Amino acid sequence: MGSVEGVTAFTRLVEHIEKYSPEWAEGICDVPAANIRRIAHEYLEAASVGATTVIDGVTLPLRPVAVILGKSVNNGWGAFECCWARTMLAVLVGALENPGGTLGTTVRLNRPHDNRHKSVLPGEDGFMAQKFNATDKANWAVKPTGRNMHKTLVPIVGNTAWSQALGPTQLAWMFQREQPAGSNMPQPTLPDVWFIYRTNPAISFWETQTLVKTIATFPFTVAFAYTVDETNYMADLLLPEATDLESVQMIRVGGTKFMEQFWDHKGVALRQPAVAAQGDTRDFTWITNELARRTGLLEQYNEAINRGAAGVSPLKGANYDFSLDPKGEHAPEVVWDAVCRAATTVLSEGRETLDLSWFKEHGFYTVPMSRLEWYLSPTMEKQGLRYELPYQERLLRVGRELRNRLHENKMAWWDEQLSEYAALPEWHDVPGRWDAALVNAGAKVEDFPLWLLASKSMQYHAGGNVGIELMREVSQNIRGHAGVIMNAKTAARYGIADGDRIEVRSHIGATYGAAVLAQGIRPDTLVILGQFDHWAQPYAKDLDMPSLNTIAPMSLELTDATGSGADIVKVQVRKIAEATA
Amino acid sequence: MTRYVTTIDLRRCVGCQTCTAACKHANATPPGIQWRRVLDLETGEFPDVRRTFLPMACMHCGNPPCEEVCPTKATTKRADGLVAIDYDLCIGCANCVMACPYDARSIVHASHYAYGDQPL
After folding, report:
1. Does residue B71 lie within any of the structural domains?
2. Is CATH 2.40.40.20 what the domain over A430-577 is classified as, yes or no?
3. Which chain B positions have a beta carbon within 8 Å of A30's beta carbon?
4. CB A466 within 8 A of CB A541
5. Smallest Cα distance from A336 to chain B, Å
6. Interface contact B115-A458, CB threshold 8 A
7. Which of A82, A261, A376, A537 is disulfide-compatible with A97, CB 3.0–4.6 A?
8. CA-CA distance, A365 to A347, in Å (whole number)?
9. pLDDT value at position A107?
10. pLDDT digits (tens, 9 = 90+) for B22-41
């Protein structure tokens, strides 16, 4: 055996990052080098390296410091570098998945889906095992298994129910319209039957006009609906569903995702009718029961419920059995009674079993949850595992394998995306990609000197609340919900005053709204909050709000390695009317 | 006796308006009437700009100006510190609306509904 010399991943990082000095960054991002240094030192000081805290008798590092990424930098081109840098900063001071620091989402790529600690399993190389989609010659999915092609093109998202939502959803829409030049992939078919449940893609994707035209060609669309919206407007079959305040459902609380991840209790809550169902609507469970019965899928449907599809737990376990007869028809209350019993038996570890009538009186059931469950690091330590950063060899290797597989099949159209499979990311000219896309679309870069971004709104989130008058009212207290946010000095240059109606035009279309002047925005940037484009949904359709989605293109060259685009488009702006009093 | 006061930690407010929505929901105030709103304030000039979220509600002042200007004693400072309104005594003069330094008082002269001219 010969000896092999190597360097540590940290050494590699230091060598790699040396060329990216604050002075180098100053020339690109407009932030003075001195400010970058000052904030870096503030970050380091705030990290309190060496401090500890005790949780349930276990001593953990206390690192009260984190970088929070805004929208538009964490999807699409540039997101890989941003997310890597954010996580790298946490790793350098020991703040990743420790008290005070950056904590990961509980949206789990690895099973089991209900407990991320149990999903931490040792891989072959001392890191956590990752269920990448295969890229080796024997197992790579040369033929896509779905319209989003995630198993073929996006190894890092794995192959679970979440996978296509983590980026490549837009590929399914984009490739309906046209295949990449040189593609030898099968032409995606239209869905025979398309189900829509509480989602409105007709307003929530880029290039909405094209999307709507595509949806209109679907042969048969079924929509659950309690009000008309832009997508279910085109449905062949509407299934009027009672609202959450009119129907029965058991939901997990605590220990789930977002802020509930950080509760001291976890359990289940019963959503039950506060008012009688309005109009000709039905409880969701009644509708699914009927769909299963009428389509001959009752047995599979019941078995899915028995496996735990409707609640927190399987209906049958080692010491309990509340499972439904797979061949029988079960009224919604019978289904939820079984779910209530199974959930409480599992949560209490067999100490008690509570039925639907108990929940109707008490509402929810919780058990204590240790704060140690908030943090992944103790679990990693128990397993003897290290975080992979700074050097992501696996990512590099998977990318090279994918490149080989694609080239073997004469596919070079994904080569740009493959550049994101790097062990240590290099800077590249992200804005330049948009300029190049403009030129390739036959437009002139100088005609579109401004950037338009979209940002989520705390009041509307992604647009789901936009039909609620109360949310509209309170949203008006926050800047930007009345139109397009614009730098005040830039606006003056264009002769635009606060409240003036403006046209924001990209190379594929225009959107209109009131100018909202502000100082806290770059002079070359406009921002629209939320996702609008409503033309069918009651109340929302009359808000006359601008929308980035109307004018942002969906194209392969603006798609990153995860299959995701970004809420960014280059635009020009002009005033079309004075503000009305 | 227990005396109540209102405190707000401005360092923690992110301007989500959830308190505004919750207050409207709990008290069923008409459209446009917010007993608790969160202001979105900007100071400075690009690139040195600061954004501040400032919750504005009845602060139950020590010496409430709204009490002083109320001609009918509909507004009174209770012994436990709360500023209360007796709707039976209120004549709708709106003096309190003008006097309140926190823009926390409001007056409704006509019925307004969230969706159209009639309640749902």
Report:
1. yes
2. yes
3. 47
4. no
5. 29
6. no
7. A376
8. 9
9. 63
10. 999 999 999 999 999 999 99
A471 touches chain B (CB under 8 A): yes
pLDDT digits over A491-546, tens only? Answer: 999 999 999 999 999 999 999 999 999 999 999 999 999 888 899 999 999 998 99
> Considering chain A, what percentage of its residues have pLDDT values greater than 70?
98
Q: Is residue B51 in some structural domain?
A: yes
Within 10 angstroms of residue B60's Cβ, the number of other Cβ atoms is 18
**Is A473–B49 a contact, with Cβ atoms under 8 angstroms apart?**
no
The pLDDT score that the predictor gives to residue A198 is: 86
Please indicate whether, in this complex, the C-beta atoms of A470 and B24 are within 8 angstroms of each other: yes
* Cα distance between residue A160 and residue A168, in whole Å: 13
Q: What is the pLDDT of residue A1?
A: 65
How far apart CA A215 and CA A235 sit, in angstroms, is 9
B80 in a domain, yes or no?
Answer: yes
B14 contacts A477? CB cut-off 8 A: no
CA-based nearest distance B3→chain A, Å: 31
Domain count, chain B: 1
Picking from B40, B117, B118 by the largest number of A CB atoms within 10 A of its own CB, the best residue to mutate is B40
Q: How far is A474 from chain B (nearest CA, A)?
A: 6
Contact residues of B toward A, CB < 8 A: 14-18, 20-21, 24-25, 31-32, 34, 37-40, 42, 44-47, 49, 51, 114-115
Where, residue-wise, is CATH 2.40.40.20 in chain A? 430-577
Question: Parallel, antiparallel, or unpaired for β A483-487 and A509-518?
Answer: parallel
Considering only CB atoms, which chain B residues are within 8 Å of A523? 46
Q: Name the band, by pLDDT with cuts 50, 70 and 90, for residue A348.
A: very high
Task: Give the dihedral sign, CA A523/A525/A529/A533.
Answer: positive
Note the Cα A117 to chain centre separation in Å: 21
CA–CA dist A532, A472 (Å, integer): 12
CA distance linking residue A277 with residue A286, whole number of Å: 13
Task: Please tell me if residue A473 touches chain B, with a CB cutoff of 8 Å.
Answer: yes
Q: How far is A112 from chain B (nearest CA, A)?
A: 33
Of chain A, the percentage scoring pLDDT greater than 90 comes to: 77
Residues of B in contact with A519 (CB under 8 A): 42, 44-46, 49
CATH 3.40.50.740 region(s) of chain A? 191-371
- The answer to whether A470 contacts B46, with C-beta atoms less than 8 Å apart, is no
Q: In CATH, what number does A191-371 get?
A: 3.40.50.740
Quick one: tokens of A498?
A: 């606060």
**Among all residues of chain A, which has the CA nearest to that of B20?**
A474
Task: Report which of A511, A497, A516 is spatially closest to residue A545, judged by C-alpha positions.
Answer: A511
Is A269:A363 a contact under the CB 8 Å cutoff? yes
User: How far apart, in whole angstroms, are the C-alpha atoms of residue A405 and residue A185?
Assistant: 13
Handedness of CA A107, A109, A112, A118 (dihedral sign): negative
Q: What is the 3-state secondary structure (H, E, C) of A136-158?
A: CCCCCCCCCCCCCCHHHHCHHHC
Going by pLDDT thresholds of 50, 70 and 90, the confidence category of residue A337 is very high
Are B16 and A459 in contact (CB < 8 Å)? yes
Summarised one tens digit per residue, pLDDT across range A177-201 is 888 888 888 888 999 999 999 889 9
Q: Which residues of A touch B15 (CB under 8 A)?
A: 458, 477-478
Count of Cβ atoms closer than 10 Å to residue A27 Cβ: 8
Q: What range defines the domain where residue B73 resides?
A: 18-99
The 3-class SS string of A543-569 reads CCCCCCCCCCCCCHHHCCCCCCCCCEE
Number of residue pairs across A and B with CB atoms under 8 Å?
60
A350 vs B: CB within 8 A? no
Asked if residue B26 belongs to a domain, the reply is yes
Please give the ipTM for the structure prediction. Answer: 0.94
